[in-house]
Amino acid sequence: MSRPKLQDVAARAGVSVTTVSRVLNNRGYLSDDIKKRVDDAVAELGYRPNEIARSLIGQRSTLVGLIVPTVADPFFGELASHAEGALAERGYKMLLCDCHDTPEREEKYLDLLQGNRVDGIISSTHNRDVAGYGRADLPIVAIDRRLGDGIPTVHSDNRTGGVLATEHLIARGSRAPVHLTATDHPGNQRAAAYRERMAAHGLEARVMAYGYDTSLDERRAVIETWLTVNPCDGVFASDDLTALMALEWARKTGRRVPDDLRIVGYDGSAALQLAVPGLTTVRQPIERMARRAVDLLLERMADATADVAAQDPLPVALRHGWTS
């Protein structure tokens, strides 16, 4: 059976093709009776507008791409959910791209989104070798990552979060807490804050970076090996999944939490709070971050030449639990 066309809808509703187009695009005044006849015909025939053709005519697809490192991490799953909701409220649809933490796949998704005429892109990945953003010809907003000049970044107060986590461990008695993170570089404010506070207390800072392109199983193995050969009495993890891996390592090795090992995570997604309500973690305002990114992107889509205003970091908070 062939796909119904605009002409089929017009014939079923007893109106012109132009009238059907006006109803579908909500243009001009039309009586309620005509709107109902067209809507009924659309429903009966199962007609679906050709979105690509409509975008070619209107130079607007109402599509926004969101690129994330992995939806397996509850933080990015929740971020995507809030971004999709904020976009839907404004009449946009979202294309979700999971780059599996690899720069090659991120480059391919960036090209794919531009080739499919999305109106804008939100990127929340952390690969550092993706050159495509500098060549992009459409509005882009980053979340918790600097992509380059002219691209605004939405982020929470990572430095304060690092201070809260480190000081909390030290206040609870840790004298040899370690920091587990994906990558260790000058722009990592959580790691920088950890080092600063450790130095202020005269303690040795130890940072272990497992790499963004490491699978969950590989990350678990690396972390368990590292913790086994590097004695510590506290763990500041850069995300909650890593904190749970440290918690599992403690269980396997017979260490009591928090007596023998204190653990603080980072992110505070709703899913992790529900699954492990006792996890001490630094909570990011995930919904506010997603909504601010959407607002910024739509502003840039409305005026691509607009100046990029500096974005103040959103506040974080430490959520206390039994793991520290």
Automatic annotation (TrEMBL):
Example of a GO MF term: transcription cis-regulatory region binding
Database matches in PANTHER family: LACI-RELATED TRANSCRIPTIONAL REPRESSOR (PTHR30146), RIBOSE OPERON REPRESSOR (PTHR30146:SF95)
Domain HTH lacI-type span(s) in chain numbering: 4-58
Q: Does the keyword DNA-binding apply?
A: yes
So which domain of life are we looking at? Bacteria
The protein's name is Transcriptional regulator, LacI family
Alphabetized UniProt keyword annotations: DNA-binding, Repressor, Transcription, Transcription regulation
Q: Which SUPFAM superfamilies match?
A: lambda repressor-like DNA-binding domains (SSF47413), Periplasmic binding protein-like I (SSF53822)
